[in-house]
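Anyone up for a design puzzle?
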């Protein structure tokens, strides 16, 4: 075989390996950070063994073999075409904002009830017998 064909084949194999390793979503964060550091070779493995699906053969379905473990541990939520870190952050923000709105709504409701009690006291009950005024009134 011609030496140029061997070199191109080897370069293609290295490029494919780099592409597969870069496309896997389950690479440990330490592996990327350690490989970028100038302190030498990374101590963490370049590929997380738990991301592999050993229940199928690599020759039969390489994508499932390479990402099956990661797909099992990182499920896509029902009703979504994809689910990632940004989607999770958005979901958490919506839940947080919902709690803030509910808390504000409850505070407004409590204040309205206090104001209604004060109105009732002013109109119908003598000032000495009004329970809202006896306990400090409307606290802000």
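Challenge accepted. My sequence:
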């Amino acid at each position: 075989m011609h030496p140029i064909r061997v070199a191109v084949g080897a370069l293609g194999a290295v490029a494919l390996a780099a592409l597969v390793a870069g496309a896997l979503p389950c690479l440990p964060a330490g592996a990327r950070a350690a490989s970028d550091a100038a302190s030498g070779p990374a101590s963490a493995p370049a590929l997380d063994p738990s991301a592999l699906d050993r229940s199928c053969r690599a020759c039969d379905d390489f994508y499932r073999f390479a990402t099956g473990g990661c797909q099992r541990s990182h499920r896509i939520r029902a009703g979504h075409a994809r689910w990632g870190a940004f989607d999770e952050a958005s979901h958490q923000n919506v839940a947080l904002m919902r709690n803030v709105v509910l808390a504000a709504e409850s505070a407004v409701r409590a204040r309205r009830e206090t104001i209604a009690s004060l109105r009732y006291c002013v109109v119908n009950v003598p000032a000495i017998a009004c329970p809202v005024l006896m306990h400090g009134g409307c606290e802000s």
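A detail worth pointing out: The radius of gyration is 31 Å.
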